[in-house]
Amino acid sequence: MIILVNPMWSVEHLNKDSNYVHIKKIIERFTQLYPDTYFIIPFPARHFKYYEDGLFQNPNVVRIPYVIPLAKKINNITFDGAFFNRIVEQYGIGLIYNQIPEVTGQLKSLDSHFSSTIPIVNQHHYIYHDSLPYPLENQMQYVYWQILGDVLADVNIYNSKYTFKMVKENVEKYMPNFLPDIEKKAKVLYMGFYDKKHSYNKNRFKKFTFMYNHRLQQYKNWADTFAMFDFLNNNYDFEVALCPVGPSNITPINKKPYTKIYEVKTEAEYYDVLSKCHCNTYNSQYETFCISIFESMMFGLATIVPNATTMPELLGKGNPQLFQGKKEQIQKVKALLKDPQQAHVFGIDNIRRAKKFDIDTYCRELNYIFEEQFNKYDMYYSLKERNKAKLQKYIDRHDKISVHDMKKIRRYINLSNQSVPNHRLTNIMQHVGYKHIIENDEAYFVKT
């Protein structure tokens, strides 16, 4: 199967973008477990920074350069239909893994047929919701587009129960008639990033060190977190390792006496710093999962986090690391500074919990969704008997067929592009015993 990924980019340095982290980790493991699956990824050719980290050396991954604006709200709705249609035609795309629900309608219009469209699996990373510190009044277009995207998709994957809760609240408030349909298509699939190759690091920094690997943006309430550090700095000796996600607000943080900035370029560099820290604490009021906290758990850091958003799902309800208000946060952080061994105890428990979100389970569940959606219709049986007979004659003579030869197949079986568009012919070829592969950047159907 060849899958088109429609990514969401929200950070200038792409290696630090949570959507890129998600795509990279999942695809790397997915293609090991399912080597007959290939991913096409449109990738920014300008405006963004990127350091090669091995993803595009994977023979099952193809990078297609395209140009999009840097601003998230603009690039998320920037849609070049001709560009995407060329990809669909060039590779015979059988399914779209869409990270931007706002453009589901446009994607559904690609290669469409009166009785079928390319299956679309939506992944939800960002929900426009009242819990954000920005008024929705002038952002309602995104709210409506996201709801309509969920209605039009074949499956909607939510990173947590809390994420789906936010979606349902929006639907109930603005488009309640769509709620039953959206609930039928919903699948909560926790981001399974735990990989046993990332082992516990006993070589921690000598000085007690907090990791701050979150965006310095309003919804993270970063000013509250660093106000707490300022207060504690009067009586305790510690450092804060800052791995900045973007350039915003770094200057005032860099001036603080306890802060050390690590400009990590790749995941390996980032994990090296993260694994040496002792604790991660923050004051975010909005999450759909929180990769940065999960990664901290995976490496055995204590995590002093709000008893809100997705944190109870990650750490477990009633976890002593959850705090209710700033006063309790300070108390819990003070306790760790007084007794660093407690951070170690929390860290070991966090590793145990993180293992529940393992990457192999995630990939298996994701593959089940992909296979289910691709195979829910057997379009071979929609052909008339005379067309089936002609197709059989053609495939009897060809063990390997280039996707570029789809037009030849259509002509041979006396059908047009309108009656059998690419996604239908791709489905037909796989149902008559061919697998869909990529060799040297060209797509083929190969008889199994």
CATH architecture of the largest domain: 3-Layer(aba) Sandwich
Overall mean confidence score, pLDDT: 92
Tally of DSSP β-strands = 16
CATH class of the largest domain: Alpha Beta
Radius of gyration: 24 Å
Strand content: 15-25%
- Helix/strand class: alpha/beta
Low-pLDDT runs: none
Could you characterize what this model shows?
The chain has 448 residues and is an alpha/beta fold. The protein folds into three domains: 206 residues, Glycogen Phosphorylase B (Rossmann fold, 3-Layer(aba) Sandwich), CATH 3.40.50.2000; 149 residues, Glycogen Phosphorylase B (Rossmann fold), CATH 3.40.50.2000; 71 residues, Arc Repressor Mutant, subunit A. The strands form three sheets. A seven-stranded parallel beta sheet has the order 3-2-1-4-5-6-7. α1 packs across α15 and α13 crosses α14. The radius of gyration is 24 Å and the shape is elongated.
SSE diagram, text form:
Layout: E1 2-6, H1 18-33, E2 38-44, E3 61-66, H2 72-75, H3 81-91, E4 95-98, H4 104-108, E5 120-124, H5 140-152, E6 155-158, H6 161-174, H7 179-184, E7 186-188, E8 209-212, H8 222-232, E9 239-242, H9 250-254, E10 259-261, H10 267-274, E11 279-281, H11 291-298, E12 302-306, H12 311-315, E13 322-323, H13 326-338, H14 340-354, H15 359-375, H16 385-396, E14 400-402, H17 406-412, H18 422-431, E15 434-439, E16 442-447
Parallel strand pairs: 1-2, 1-4, 2-3, 4-5, 5-6, 6-7, 8-9, 8-11, 9-10, 11-12, 12-13
Antiparallel strand pairs: 14-16, 15-16
Helix pairs in contact: 1-15, 11-14, 13-14
